[in-house]
Specification:
Blueprint lengths: L15 H8 L2 E7 L6 E7 L2 E8 L4 E7 L6 H4 L5 H18 L5 E5 L2 E6 L4 H9 L7 E7 L4 E7 L11 E5 L2 E3 L2 H10 L12 E6 L5 E2 L10 E2 L2 H18 L6
Parallel strand pairs: 9-11
Antiparallel strand pairs: 1-2, 1-4, 2-3, 5-6, 7-8, 8-11, 9-10, 12-13
């Protein structure tokens, strides 16, 4: 109903992404509900359903997407190099892997396994994605208020880099971009970062779904919070506390 629009807790909402990808690619879907003996296989190509048949398949749903933009050569021409497109895929993969640490993830590229992530806790998942060396510079961050709950990890100042790459905000297990909150984190590192360096952070926020709006952009990575200014100060205080607790701030 209409109220659901103002309290979205799922990754998407209207199923537009599936319809969109099925319009410009060849999609195979296998699905089976608990309690059903057989599942269903559906093959769609360029929005046309080519096949629907019963199939033996595990409980759950799997999608295979092939030949992206096979029917729109003009769009296919605008795809970047394989290396660049793979970078985008890895970024999306990481967003999901970091928010669902209880699920096993495998990423393969041209039959080569790039990542194999086993179920575990958040620290294990971060080191699985970014390497074991990451473990040495993770500082826990945690605070809970009536407005928002904040948890996760920030990086030690000496491990900050000049390039972006390990900066993540999530709200209700959804990856978001938020330049304003990024400034709050940077402010927390005042006077203890080398010039032009950016610290790592993996910050998870939990909020009442009715107090955020995820529908302001199709990708749902731009999120409007009801009380952004208060959250800014909560984040700043949480970062400063984590740094102070580990005696990393100047006297």
């Amino acid at each position: 109903n209409a109220e659901d629009l103002f309290s979205i807790s799922t990754k998407g909402f209207r199923g537009e992404a599936l319809a969109s990808i099925a319009a410009v690619a060849e999609v195979n879907m296998k699905t089976r509900r608990k309690g059903d003996e057989l599942g269903t296989r559906v093959r769609i190509s360029g929005s046309k359903t080519e096949l629907t048949e019963p199939v033996q398949t595990p409980v759950g749903t799997s999608f295979q997407v092939r030949n992206l933009f096979f029917n729109i050569p003009a769009r296919r021409k605008f795809l970047k190099s394989d290396h660049t497109e793979l970078r985008h895929i890895i970024a999306e993969f990481n967003h999901l892997a970091l928010t669902h640490t209880d699920i096993r993830f495998t990423l393969t590229h041209n039959d080569t396994e790039i990542l194999q992530l086993l179920p575990g806790n958040l620290r294990q998942r971060i080191t699985g994605v970014f390497g074991k060396a990451t473990n040495a510079y993770l500082l826990p961050i945690e605070t809970e208020t009536s407005i928002i709950k904040v948890s996760g990890f920030i990086g030690k100042p000496e491990h900050a880099r000049k390039t972006y790459g390990e900066q993540f905000f999530f709200v209700n297990n959804r990856y978001i971009r938020h330049p304003y909150f990024h400034k709050a984190v940077m402010k927390g590192y005042d006077q203890i970062l080398a010039p032009d360096h950016i610290p790592s952070y993996f910050i998870f926020m939990e909020s009442d779904a009715s107090r955020i709006d995820v529908n302001i952009h199709p990708s749902k990575t731009e999120v409007k919070f009801e009380d952004e200014r208060s959250i800014w100060h909560i984040l700043l205080a949480a970062v400063k506390e984590a740094i102070g607790r580990n005696n990393l701030s100047p006297s």
